[in-house]
Each structure stands twice: as C-alpha cells, then as structure tokens.
Design a protein that fits this description.
Elements: H1 2-26, H2 33-46, H3 52-73, H4 113-127, H5 131-151, H6 161-174, E1 178-187, E2 192-199, H7 200-205, H8 214-228, E3 232-238, E4 247-253
Antiparallel strand pairs: 1-2, 2-4, 3-4
Length: 258
C-alpha cells in the first residue's frame, strides 16, 4: 500500500512538472480550458495525498524551466548558450510557440467559447422533442444566470476577507445550493480556503462513486476571485454523494500567465 502511494505521488509530481514545462516553453495561455482542466485534476488527485502544495511548486518550477529553455532556443546557435545542460526526462520539446493574445489583467473564460456553445447546442439537441427536458435546460441556464447576477454584487475587501467569503456562501445558501456551511480556515498568503458544506445538489443526485458538486465549485471560484482579487480553482475533496457527512471544498491558486 505504501509503495502504491509513493508511486502515485511520483506520477502526480512528474505530470505537474511536465505540464508546467509545456506551458512555459510554448508560452501557452494558462486560461486555456485544457490546461486548467489538467492542472485542476492534478491538484485534486494530490489533495488526499497531502501533496497539493508540492504539485503547485512543481508546476511553477517546470514552467520557469520551460521559459528559460524557450529563451535559450530563440538565441543564435553560435551564442554558446544553446549548449546549456539540464533536461527534464521524458518531456518532448514543443515545436510551436503560442503567444497569448489577451492583455494582462483581462478576465478570461473558464472554457473556450466554442466549446461552451457546442455544449449548449448538444443539450438542446438532446432535449428537442421533449417539452419536459427543454424546460429543464431552460431552468438550469436561468438558475446559473441568477447566481451570476447575485455573485456579481460581491465587492472585494482586503480588510475583511472573511465577510466577503461569508456573503458569497450566504448567496449560495439563499438560492438553495447549500443547506449549511462551515468555513474551516482561510490562508490568504497561499490563496487557500477549506469549506465544509451540506450540498443540496449532492443530496438531489444521490449515491455516486465520485464528487458531483462541480457547479458549486465553479460558483465558489467566482467567490474566491473576489475574496483574493486573484483567480483561484476550487476542487471538491469529499462529497455527500460518496457517503461523506459533508462536502469539502478546497480553494487553491489558479495558474496565471506572466
């Protein structure tokens, strides 16, 4: 069992290093959906093992190493710098460099717009021919819009972050997504928060082999952005649908393009 844990830790840290290197070397926009999804998955896998912070640090180290290699590779071959030593084993060097077209400080979407439109289109196709299903699709979209409107009212307050978080969680309770919640701790320096909550979504879903409160995670990310005035990602570590007493949500820094 110990060996399995050790192998899992090595794999997760290795993947975080590789992802960071790929982002750093290629100059990729970290707001891209696939990057964010891989980063979130790695940190989520790391949480039960207690190595989430290690994953974040490995990702950053890999990104910095990739950026250095990108700078070196752009220099003339006779500069002598191209013969630098040190490669991350198992990482293929990307052949293209993709620069972000977005200016720094601009808020970006969680997923590519085309993907979002296609997902909505697929939902509508599935619901066509069923008045009940089409009504459910409209209900979901309307509910998300209501939540967005309420959360947009939140104002950052660096002097009283706890009140910002409490206000946001109260909104989620008012709209019926959370029955109750407890703020376990807030770590401003690491943009980390732990929340235990009774999720009405989990109760409605029933038994599941994996966490089901992704909609709540996304709403909490919006709250976290206001809380720290910087982007965060939220993962669900335990879930009522899996038999846990409460759902636990963990905030951690979202990778940002430099």
């Amino acid at each position: 069992m110990i060996e399995q844990f050790e192998e899992a830790e090595k794999r997760i840290l290795r993947e975080a290093l590789r992802l960071g290197y790929e982002v750093g070397f290629s100059g990729l926009d970290e707001s891209a959906g696939w990057i964010r999804a891989r980063y979130t998955r790695l940190v989520s896998e790391a949480l039960p093992l207690g190595i989430a912070q290690n994953v974040i640090e490995k990702y950053k180290a890999g990104k910095e190493f990739g950026k250095r290699n990108r700078l070196f590779s752009s220099l003339p071959s006779d500069s002598g710098i191209l013969n630098h030593k040190g490669k991350i084993q198992g990482i293929a060097t990307p052949t293209t460099i993709v620069e972000s077209s977005l200016p720094k400080g601009v808020s970006v979407a969680r997923v590519p717009v085309k993907d979002a439109i296609q997902a909505v289109a697929n939902m509508i196709r599935l619901a066509q021919g069923s008045e009940i299903l089409m009504d459910r699709v409209s209900t979901v979209i309307s509910n998300v819009a209501d939540i967005h409107d309420r959360l947009a009212e939140l104002k950052p307050d660096e002097g009283d972050r706890a009140s910002v978080l409490t206000e946001g969680l109260t909104i989620l309770s008012d709209i019926g997504w959370l029955e109750s919640y407890d703020i376990v701790d807030i770590d401003v320096e690491h943009r980390s928060v732990r929340i235990d909550a009774v999720s009405q979504i989990a109760r409605a879903v029933g038994t599941s082999s994996e966490p089901v409160c992704r909609p709540i995670c996304i709403a909490l990310e919006s709250i976290g952005n206001k809380l720290f005035n910087q982007p965060v990602i939220v993962a669900e570590r335990s879930c009522i649908s899996q038999g846990d007493e409460k759902c636990r949500f963990i905030f951690f820094p979202r990778p940002q393009s430099d």
